[in-house]
Amino acid sequence: MSQYYRIPLKKHKPSSKYSWEERIAIHKNIAKNKYGRLVEKQTLKAVPTEPVSDYGNDIGYYGPATLGGQKFQFLFDTGSADLWVPKVGYNKGAGKHSSFDPKKSSSFQTDNKPFSITYGTGHTAGIAATDTFEFSDFTIQNQAFGLADTVSDDFTDSPFDGILGMAFDSLSELQAPTPFQNLVNNKDVSSSVFGFILGREKDGTSSELTIGGVDPKFANNLKYNKVVNNRGFWQITLGGAQVDGNDISVSGGDAIIDTGTTLVIIPTADADAIHNAIPGSKKQGQNYLIPSDTKAVVSFSFGGVTYQISPEDLIVDDAGNGLSVSGIQGDTLPGMENTWLVGDVFLKNVFNAYDVDKTAVGFAPLK
């Protein structure tokens, strides 16, 4: 049996300083800019578990790791491919997060090459560096990372200090292997797979990242889907969508699977079609609202298998008057007009696994 490792994850709670309309706009902008920054790029070349926490009513999931002997909390993001942390004194000393001090690490190296990453409403910039990276039971020597002296205010209230990208190396702004790819390259794991269980803040279910294998509880029901292009995303073919078992006509052909995105963001016509089939749904401006007591079951199909989204996961924010913000929203990713962005609203309902060698994404229902 393959050895694998588990990392418990934490959940991040939403900030109350924004209205629900502003929070939806933030989610959309993050997605559009996160993926839009890659449109102009040329075509790219083709288990212990760790604790994971979730934040902001399941806005995102993060967990601990050590870089250069210094401890940080990282957002685990399958939609990006870079590791970064803030530098001591970042934002001219106004930052609130744990920060990296090069003087405290004997293994720190840098050639002072600049790096910059844009995540939508958030961005970070500084220099590229390498150091020893430790998470779960693994140690990676000379792991490339970004040492940020500038971090936008969008990260100020986040419970995590930096981001650990888990997409393919071809997306890396640092042009370097991700930590998990290094584990595979160094043969530190017996399997090229990592996987997530993403729990719910509201019912206290636990979250975890499995490294170098698959949780045995889900292995027999795991169905893989091949990645369909060489952009570097975990992008797979979308089979279709249903509401309460009835097929919905949608135009989306592919879906990017992204643990670092909260919502499911799809072309507006597809969002219209799905919400038209949900009793009591309402469109307010460009946003979709659903009854707070909805029992509608939305399902997505991949590889001939249909996976249900629990009605509770369709509800992401209170909009008042018996209505809630839908976890499925309409918008277009720049340069990817027929592509769906499938985030945690869906992923909380499946064990989601990612095989870097076989370039495939697997799902198994949690129930």
UniProtKB/TrEMBL annotation:
Pfam families assigned: Asp
Name by which UniProt lists this protein: Acid protease
Biological processes per GO annotation: proteolysis
Top-level lineage group: Eukaryota
Residue ranges of domain Peptidase A1 in the record: 61-364
Family under the similarity heading: Belongs to the peptidase A1 family.
Active-site residues (renumbered): 77, 258
CDD domains reported for this sequence: pepsin_like
Keywords of the record: Aspartyl protease, Disulfide bond, Hydrolase, Protease, Signal, Zymogen
